[in-house]
Design goal:
- This protein has six domains: 355 residues, NADH-ubiquinone oxidoreductase 51kDa subunit (Rossmann fold, 3-Layer(aba) Sandwich); 82 residues; 153 residues, no CATH class; 55 residues; 34 residues, no CATH class; 47 residues.
- The protein is built from 24 helices and 17 strands.
- Helix 4 packs across helix 5.
- The longest helix is centred in the middle third of the chain and has 62 residues.
- The structure holds iron/sulfur cluster (2 copies).
Length: 814
């Protein structure tokens, strides 16, 4: 064997009965044109194509009917001319018997092509244009998985592809579609390879074919004459056709676990895909048909057909002479990796390389699965060097981490392990289910991770917004402090305003600065941050500056000119004194006053002294009040003052353990009270003796009060339902009070009040009862009407009750 023909072996592998002779003895035939074609929108890995036709639209053969929907997607084309009759759910080739969105076209029998516009010379196209052409022709891998070819060609744009491998292996039993294609269309195959080689410029092109296809090998070798493409033939073994296995056989290089061939500079394409590329680039034809094997002992005429994509499987099998009485199991694909079709209504799709109509004797149902005996046969058969029995146990226990650690995703689902298993364990089914579970979980985790990221981003946004707000607040505070400081340093400007007005303004500012400082101090107490500390320091400085400005202004403020010693001025002076006293008293209560507070106390004392002096001056200037008779007014005022002082004193005296300030205040109040009482006595002595009142007035008043009290006592007892024994003395007391009043009236000398007797009807108990019943019935009805869950019967009863009560009330004649 020359170096050029060197091949390598792969681990594992099996040799099942090939059964290829059933279908490889006749040339490819053209399948009849079906009346109706079903085009599922998903015939590839990736996003479903998007329909670009509407129901009722006429389409020609090769016309695009659905566009690629995203990068990993391919368009679809009408396989024949006809009319779009339906777009929606249709049977789909899947083991579950599921439906999937599809475009349904009724053929018009004309099979009329759309105008084909292949490029004059593809070599003049840019690589991007050539890739677009391949993509727009709707080409995806025809060997099995259906990955969009244009995407595969650009899988690792930065990785140079040095080896292009063309897969002509077709290792699975029964399937001969690629064999026949290589035999009959080797020239087109080589032309397709040439296009690919032009596109990716590999250093070598290797065509791998198993040695069980001598005619195909000969045909491809002949077609490759004049090219430096190497046709490499190797012994038949299943599953040599797996992409990673073929790479290993032809190059001796292993694709790393979880990696792609492109990672090691290798690209693999199926022979069918190469022919489809030829058709698209050189003829301008999109992918609308494929060669598929119709085989199995239930068919009278097995063989290979070129069939339109979308042809119902039942029609193809009928063409191959299906004997439904013999049909036991219909498989799409081969017996190792294919899946059972539950219906003949599903269409042929781009990845359908075989339809196997088997009899019961041909593919008997597997015996019931038995427990694993740890024979190790499966591990020996595995071409991916996995431990199938371990994977099986991990899959049973849903140990996902272990499954991943044991490279479950390197399993190509070839079924070699299950084929050799003496316990007939359907191992591949376990692996498929476990892979699906893991993918679903990872999808969920990905979603959760996205949600978490969104949440964290939101928190970050909020934090930044808060920071910005804080900065703005700080800027405002600084501005305010600067403005206050400027005002404090600008006494000239302040003096320009009327003195009172300026003082007032300064007071307001000092107060606002104080409020802002207190607020910031509170925030600082709650959240001790360096920003807040700095802010508090600034605000304190501003407040001090404002306070100083106010103190300076007050100190330099001109002493108010003595006002006309009128009543008004006197009153104002008194108020000033009172206010200053109050402020001073408040400040004097502060325990351990700081320097500022002490300064403020001193200032207030000064002001108070000045105010008291001003008051004394005013009082001296004021004309001596007309000698009033020590009348009622002065007496009344003195009484009120004494009473107020008493009340204040009593309140303070109630405090248990008064502190020093409180004791001082109590002493002060006692002193004041003593003076007030003395003044009151003096006034009372000066007052003229009150005019002798008619002796009866006081007595009359007292008698009236007594009567009212006795009446009230009696009413209260009656309302409380007191018995007659208790009521009797009260009635007697009332009578006595009435008589006392009459006597007082008689001696008072006043005319006796005119007595008006009003007749009050006695209480009608029945009328009262009827009214009460009507009121209760009304209230009950309202309550039920407010409750949404009330049954209609209950409502009806309540209405009847109210109507009856009202009727009785209306009809009542006292
Ligand atoms: S071949 Fe079957 S019985 Fe043997 S070890 Fe593998 S799974 Fe177990
Ligand atoms: S199905 Fe997976 S585990 Fe079994 S032999 Fe094939 S690659 Fe190995």
């Amino acid at each position: 064997m020359s170096a050029q023909e060197k091949i390598w072996d792969i681990p594992g592998g099996i040799h099942p009965a090939e059964r290829k002779e059933l279908s490889n003895r006749t040339p490819i035939q053209q399948a009849p044109l079906p009346k109706r074609l079903l085009l599922p929108l998903v015939q590839h890995i990736g996003a479903a194509a998007e329909p670009c036709v509407v129901v009722g639209q006429r389409v020609r053969k090769g016309e695009k009917v659905a566009t690629a929907n995203g990068v990993v997607s391919v368009p679809l084309h009408a396989p024949t001319s006809g009319t779009v009759v339906f777009i929606g759910e249709q049977p789909y080739p899947h083991a579950s018997g599921m439906l999937a969105p599809a475009i349904v076209i009724d053929s018009d029998g004309l099979d009329e092509w759309v105008e084909l516009t292949p490029p004059a010379d593809y070599r003049s196209l840019e690589p991007g244009e050539l890739l677009t052409l391949i993509r727009e022709a709707g080409i995806n891998g025809l060997g099995g998985a259906g990955f969009p070819t244009a995407v595969k060609l650009t899988a690792r744009p930065t990785q140079k592809i040095h080896t292009l491998i063309i897969n002509g292996t077709e290792c699975e039993p029964y399937i001969t579609a690629d064999d026949l294609l290589m035999r009959e269309r080797a020239a087109e195959l080589v032309a397709g390879i040439k296009i690919l080689a032009h596109l990716i410029q590999p250093e070598q092109v290797l065509i791998g074919i198993e040695d069980n296809k001598p005619e195909a090998i000969a045909a491809v070798r002949a077609a490759c004459a004049g090219h430096d493409y190497q046709v490499r033939v190797f012994p038949t073994k299943y599953p040599s056709g797996g992409e990673k296995q073929l790479i290993q056989i032809l190059t001796g290089v292993e694709v790393p676990s979880g990696g792609l061939p492109a990672d090691i500079g290798i690209l693999c394409q199926n022979v069918g895909t190469c022919v489809a590329i030829h058709d698209a680039v050189l003829l301008g034809k999109p992918l609308i048909s494929r060669i598929t094997t119709l085989t199995g002992e239930a068919l009278a005429r097995p063989g290979n057909v070129e069939a339109l994509i979308g042809t119902p499987v039942g029609e193809l099998l009928a063409f191959a002479g299906l004997d439904t009485s013999k049909l036991n199991r219909l498989i799409m694909g081969g017996p190792m990796m294919g899946f059972t079709l539950p219906s003949l209504d599903v269409p042929l799709i781009k990845t359908s390389n075989c339809l196997l109509a088997s009899t019961a004797a041909e593919l008997p149902p597997p015996p019931p699965a038995m427990p694993c005996i740890r024979c190790g046969e499966c591990a020996e058969a595995c071409p991916a060097s996995l431990l199938p029995q371990q994977l099986h146990f991990f899959a049973l226990g849903q140990e996902h981490e272990q499954l991943k650690a044991h490279n479950l995703f390197d399993c190509i689902e070839c079924g070699a392990c299950a084929y050799v298993c003496p316990s007939s364990i359907p191992l591949v089914q376990y692996y498929r289910a476990a892979k699906a579970e893991i993918r679903e979980l990872e999808q969920k985790q990905l979603k959760a991770e996205h949600s978490k990221q969104r949440f964290e981003q939101r928190q970050e946004r909020l934090r930044r917004a808060e920071e910005q707000k804080e900065a703005e607040r700080k800027a405002r505070a600084e501005k305010a402090a600067r403005a206050k400081a400027a005002q404090a340093e600008a006494p000239v400007a302040a003096a320009a305003a009327p003195a009172d007005e300026a003082l007032k303004k300064l007071k307001i500012e000092a107060s606002m600065a104080q409020v802002a400082l207190k607020k910031a101090e509170k925030q600082l107490a709650a959240h001790d941050t360096s920003e807040l500390q700095a802010q508090v320091a600034e605000l304190r400085a501003a407040a001090e500056a404002a306070q100083k400005a106010l103190a300076d202004a007050q100190a330099t403020a001109p002493v108010p000119a003595p006002k006309p010693a009128g009543d008004e001025a006197l009153k104002k002076a008194k108020i000033d004194v009172a206010m200053l006293k109050a402020q001073l008293r408040k400040l004097e209560k502060t325990e351990a006053p700081d320097d500022d507070q002490q300064a403020e106390i001193a200032r207030l004392r000064q002001q108070l002294e000045a105010a008291e002096k001003a008051l004394v001056d005013l009082q001296n200037q004021a004309p001596a009040p007309a000698a009033k008779p020590a009348g009622d007014e002065a007496l009344k005022k003195a009484k009120i003052e004494a009473a107020m002082l008493k009340a204040q004193l009593r309140k303070l005296e109630k405090i248990e353990n008064p502190d020093d300030d409180q004791q001082t205040e109590i002493a002060r109040l006692r002193q004041q009270l003593e003076a007030a009482e003395k003044a009151l006595v003096g006034l009372q002595n000066q007052a003229p003796a009150p005019a002798a009142k008619p002796a009866g007035d006081e007595v009359l008043k007292k008698a009236k009060v007594e009567l009212a009290m006795k009446r009230a006592e009696l009413k209260k007892a009656e309302k409380a339902g007191a018995d007659e024994a208790d009521l009797q003395p009260l009635r007697a007391a009332l009578t006595a009070a009435e008589q006392a009043l009459h006597a007082a009236e008689a001696t008072s000398g006043k005319p006796a009040p005119e007595q008006v007797r009003t007749e009050r009807p006695g209480v009608d108990e029945k009328f009262k009862a009827l009214k009460t019943e009507a009121a209760f019935a009304r209230a009950d009805l309202r309550k039920l009407e407010r409750d949404e869950s009330t049954a209609s019967e209950a409502l009806e009863q309540a209405r009847t009750r109210l109507a009856e009560a009202e009727r009785k009330l209306n009809e009542y004649q006292p």
